[in-house]
Each structure stands twice: as C-alpha cells, then as structure tokens.
Amino acid sequence: MTPLAHILALPVRAYRLLLSPWVGHGCRYQPTCSAYTLEALERHGAIKGSYLGAKRILSCHPWGGHGYDPVPGADPEFDAEHRCDHAHKDHPDA
C-alpha cells in the first residue's frame, strides 16, 4: 500500500474499531463497505482506491445496490461475467 493510501486508510480503520460495533452489522454488500474500501486502497492505490470506496459508500442506501460486489480485480470470474453482461447490453444487436 502506498504511503498516501495508508493515511487514507486510517479513518476507515478507526471507523471499524470505534463506530462499527455500535452501528451494527446490517451492511447491504459483501464485502462490507469498510472492507471494500481498505482492499481498494491496497489494490489500486490512494486515488483510484478512494474513488472506488467513495462510490461504494454513496451507493449504500435503500435504493442502491446490494449483494456480492468485490473490488475490481479481486475476483476475475466475477469481473469477466460482468464485463460480458455490459458488453451484451451495449451491443446494438442485443
């Protein structure tokens, strides 16, 4: 993890240690948003990892998504399936 990513991970780690036990375990996603953000920072660095983490957190609301949503690159099978789904939807003959 880059030094900047380490710094950006500190508030996430503090949340997991101090606030998460009080908030409860009703996360809509697997992995949880905090775990996702830490993995995104580790895998993709400070800039892209922060973007991915913020995007995930902003989608965590009653009208947002839910279910299994790994960090890009963490599950190649999942990435390949979803890349194919998007390609078929964008194809004019589909």
From TrEMBL:
<dbReference type="InterPro" id="IPR002696">
    <property type="entry name" value="Membr_insert_effic_factor_YidD"/>
</dbReference>
<keyword id="KW-0472">Membrane</keyword>
<dbReference type="GO" id="GO:0005886">
    <property type="term" value="C:plasma membrane"/>
</dbReference>
<comment type="function">
    <text>Could be involved in insertion of integral membrane proteins into the membrane.</text>
</comment>
<dbReference type="Pfam" id="PF01809">
    <property type="entry name" value="YidD"/>
</dbReference>
<comment type="similarity">
    <text>Belongs to the UPF0161 family.</text>
</comment>
<protein>
    <recommendedName>
        <fullName>Putative membrane protein insertion efficiency factor</fullName>
    </recommendedName>
</protein>
<keyword id="KW-1003">Cell membrane</keyword>
